[in-house]
Design brief:
The protein is built from nine helices and no strands.
């Protein structure tokens, strides 16, 4: 992951991955079909480790903690952009990216919304999938176009906006 963060996805090679791991290229290809698949596995591990699904007992606290961790893209922007670019070029990888990474991130957000709905914090007419689209739409738009930061301020603004729109007492 470090080499990827330092040099970007385009400069990353299977040979470089193998050298850093101290193995031959054949070993890498035995486990993964491409560098994109290696990076996808690393990204999934990173997300599972660093972006927990908080359970602090309230939607505002859970949402803010989750979005803060999700929007903290220090060093990961080139990784995510590289994988998205690969997904746009390679339909088979796009399915793997969507099914293995994007779906798990959506499931994490869905879990927060479902718990909040069970506690009666979410208005009954709210479609969780649309809320999830809003969160990740902002994330990917800002990642891809870099027109505005993905930082704690952005996570706070999105959290506040969502809470005004989805809570029972809106």
């Amino acid at each position: 992951m470090r080499e990827l963060e330092e040099h970007g996805y385009a400069a990353l090679t299977v040979q470089g991955i193998a050298a850093r791991a101290g193995v031959g290229k054949q070993t890498i290809y035995r486990w993964w079909q491409s560098k994109a698949d290696v990076v996808l596995d690393a990204l999934i591990d990173m997300a599972d480790t660093h972006i927990a699904v908080p359970d602090r007992g309230s939607l505002p606290e859970d949402l803010m903690a989750f979005l803060k961790a999700t929007f903290d893209q220090r060093g990961r922007r080139p990784v995510l952009i590289g994988l998205m670019a690969q997904a746009l070029l390679d339909p088979a990888f796009a399915r793997a990216f969507r099914d293995r990474f994007l779906a798990s991130r959506r499931a994490a957000m869905r879990k927060i919304l479902e718990r909040a709905a069970t506690r009666g914090e979410v208005a009954p007419d709210i479609d969780p999938e649309t809320v999830i689209d809003v969160v990740y739409g902002v994330l990917w738009y800002r990642l891809m176009l870099n027109h505005a930061p993905l930082d704690e301020t952005a996570s706070s603004q999105i959290s506040d906006l969502l809470l005004r729109g989805i809570t029972r007492d809106r």
